[in-house]
Write a structure and sequence with these properties.
Layout: H1 2-13, H2 18-25, H3 31-37, H4 44-69, H5 71-80, H6 82-104, H7 107-135, H8 140-146, H9 152-166, H10 171-180, H11 185-200, H12 204-258, H13 267-289
Helix pairs in contact: 2-4, 4-5, 4-6, 5-6, 7-8, 7-9, 7-11, 7-12, 9-10, 10-11, 11-12, 12-13
Amino acid sequence: MVMKGEAKAAQKKKGIFTPIAELLASRFPDLKKKLRMADMDDNPVDFLEKTVSSTILISAGLLLLVYILLAERLDFLLRTDIVTFLLLVIAPLIVLPVGMFFYLMLYPEASIMRRQREMDYEIVFAGRHIAIALKSGMPLFDTFAGAATGYGAVSKEFTKIVDQVMLGASVSQAIRDVVEYNPSKYFTRMLIQIANAVSSGADVGSSMENVLDQISKEQLISLKEYSQKLTPVVMFYMVFGIIIPTLGVVLTTVILSAIGGGFPPIILPIVFVIVALIQFLFLGFIESSRPKYLI
């Protein structure tokens, strides 16, 4: 009876898109690891099921908008060019859902990058907390328990280690289990160094200080590289986001006035949208590439 009840419960949990999600799961073998590294609770089938349903809903709205905007054009082509009409009708039905699906599939990778940045931001201060506590004679477990609060995303990882140790795992094993799915190379390096020092009986505090010095130097180098990379990016932004659009509109207006033609009123809104999109992309690139560290 219990087994039948569990089977019925499992069947009830299946949604309309579950068979499609199960079929797609084999196409993305690394999705399970990505979800773990992104610290997401969904399994691959659940995530794909949500992605498929979101893809259908969003694509339906976009398709409706596209067909409304192309209504007059489609009506004209239906009477004059049936091949182009069919192409304009069928192409969005294929391109929009496929593009939206793969766009939504980037969410775990975006979450991994965000989680990595959050951990790298606090890693040095959290490491110094641990190093000072260890040098003062505090046990390693108590040190991890103390670092489990006050350091953002890094504290969450130490909380996982503390929970595993309280459930009976050794400190070294708990560390290795946590760093296996951790996206921060700095956190992984620091924790692996601690695990190796514990296993070999070396001084953990001294090992921590050496690792933290290396991490601090690498973060400073990263900040300097960003400042050097920012100059050509700003120049590129000035040229393509401000100078070319401004001069292009002015020159086009002068040329059209000289030849006696009028400036099409639809051009200005299009130029405005393109310039706004370029500026948005540049600002997003600058913000996403800027390293954020507490050093």
